[in-house]
Specification:
By secondary structure, the chain is an alpha+beta fold. It folds into 2 domains: 218 residues, PmbA/TldD superfamily (PmbA/TldD fold, 2-Layer Sandwich), CATH 3.30.2290.10; 222 residues, no CATH class. Helix content is 23%, strand content 38%. The strands form 4 sheets. The chain has a 6-stranded antiparallel β-sheet. It has a 5-stranded mixed barrel with strand order 7-14-15-16-19. Strands 10-9-8-13-18 form a 5-stranded mixed β-sheet, with helices on one face. A hairpin with a 2-residue loop joins strand 11 and strand 12. This is Peptidase PmbA.
Length: 447
């Protein structure tokens, strides 16, 4: 399968751009070359709705002239000299950025770790069609499911090369396989829908399509005939799928760029207890078959596992070169390429599990709301104020009583983090991995 992407050609493109930029007058530069092949199939009611294959190439050259920088991108590299000259001319008239520059040479990756990023199993449209049809059929077999909202399967192969003018050159290839199914239950205005999905680096790790479809169907049926809750304060449990958003808010709040701009509600909390004692959050760029595993970051900087939250205490920001310079800190290999430059971010970030299952959390809470679906993006990153639409199930005596919907959950993330209790059911498949979590005393706005 790897012959679909010629890494040597990617390396040549990046090297030619770097050489051309130096000749054009750049003091420093880097070039990233990315290519990919993807294939996806969508089915509905037993028939293929769409098959899409895409192949793409992109090169981006970033140049530095003193503290001025500019970047240009192209899909083809017919004339590296012309592209480099344009980038240098743009940089010469750009405003100065005191934090611009390549990564320090001492921080560059010298030895590349062996990582399981690439599965050599190539998929055909027929393979993906069969997966999607099997998932859909299993969902439709669930009693109470009235129709399919569609099912899909996908495969992607990508190659990346980064080269810099101070001697770094690194490359890697990665694969990704996925599937999903959406089921609809009920009729007319009483219809409810839900879904299930899976996405993995290695095909052999994917769940069975029939399992994905069955769970999608069962989730849709469970949501039938929802009631509304009256406004109240209640214990809230986020199932692991919904809890990933809570982890995402933490990731955004400890982004080095937000800290440097002073737009994070955690900007003054380094070294302080943000969560309860015992809570651990780790970020691991070398996680086995992880969705965000990589041998180097967007600047070629070496990275290591970070204990971001250690025993409840905040220990690290996510830093790329620019944000680290602005904050007077050392980059920690969390640079992501974004358009003309880099931005800091997480890799494989995990809220480590606790000791109690979801059922035990519900039993401990007694009564409350089990959140299975969130709506909207009502979070203020500066203050931590939180307000999200939600649906799920009301439980009493640790047992689900009824489906509920049209609820708003409100609070402040500082308080929510401090009261968060993780369950034991860690869903470790995605780049943001969490178990279910319980947060006591949330404000619910209902009917």
């Amino acid at each position: 399968m790897s012959e679909l992407i010629d890494q040597s050609e990617l390396q040549s493109r990046a090297a030619r751009l770097v050489e051309a930029a130096r000749k054009a007058g750049a003091d420093a530069c880097d070039a990233i070359a990315v290519t990919g092949v993807s294939l996806s199939v969508d089915v509905r009611e037993g028939k293929v709705e769409e098959t899409e294959r895409a192949e793409g190439d992109d090169v981006t050259l970033r140049v530095f002239v003193g503290k001025r920088t500019a970047a240009v991108s192209a899909n083809r590299l017919d004339d590296p000299a012309s592209l480099a000259e344009r980038a240098v001319a743009m940089a010469k008239v750009a405003p100065e950025d005191p934090y611009a520059g390549l990564a320090d040479q001492d921080l560059l990756v010298k030895e590349f770790p062996e990582l399981e990023l690439l599965d050599t199993k190539e998929m055909t449209a027929e393979d993906l069609t069969q997966i999607a049809l099997e998932a859909e059929a299993a969902g439709l077999e669930v009693e109470g499911v009235t129709k399919s909202g569609g099912a899909g399967a996908s495969w992607r192969l990508a190659g990346v090369v980064l080269a810099t003018s101070h001697g770094f050159q690194g490359s890697y290839m990665s694969s990704r396989y996925g599937m999903s199914m959406t089921a609809v239950a009920g009729e007319g205005t009483g219809m409810e829908r839900d879904y299930d999905f899976d996405s993995r680096t290695y095909y052999e790790d994917l769940e069975a399509p029939a399992e994905i479809g069955r769970r999608a169907g069962e989730r849709a049926v469970r949501r039938l005939n929802p009631n509304k809750l009256s406004t109240r304060t209640a214990n809230v449990i986020y199932e692991s799928r919904a809890a990933r958003s809570i982890l995402g808010h933490l990731v955004g709040a400890i982004n080095g760029a937000a800290i440097a701009r002073k737009t994070s509600f955690l900007k003054d909390r380094m070294g302080e207890a943000v969560f309860a004692p015992g809570i651990q959050v780790v970020d691991d760029p070398f996680k086995r078959r992880g969705a965000a595993t990589r041998p180097f970051d967007g600047e070629g900087t070496r990275a290591e596992r970070l204990d971001v939250i250690e025993d409840g205490v905040l220990r690290h920001w996510f830093l790329d070169g620019a944000s680290a310079r602005e904050l007077g800190l050392t980059p920690n290999g969390r640079a992501h390429r974004s358009g003309s430059g880099t931005s800091p971010g997480a890799t494989n970030v995990t809220l480590m599990p606790g000791e109690k299952s979801l059922e035990e959390l519900m039993a401990e809470a007694g009564q409350g709301l089990l959140v299975t679906d969130l709506i909207g993006h009502g979070v203020n990153g500066l203050t931590g104020d939180y307000s999200r639409g939600a649906a799920g199930f009301w439980f009493e005596n640790g047992q689900i009583v009824e489906a509920v919907s049209e609820i708003t959950i409100a609070g402040n993330l500082k308080d929510m983090f401090a009261r968060l209790v993780p369950g034991s059911d860690l869903d470790n498949r995605y780049s943001a991995a969490t178990p279910s979590v319980m947060i006591e005393g949330m404000a619910l706005a209902g009917s």
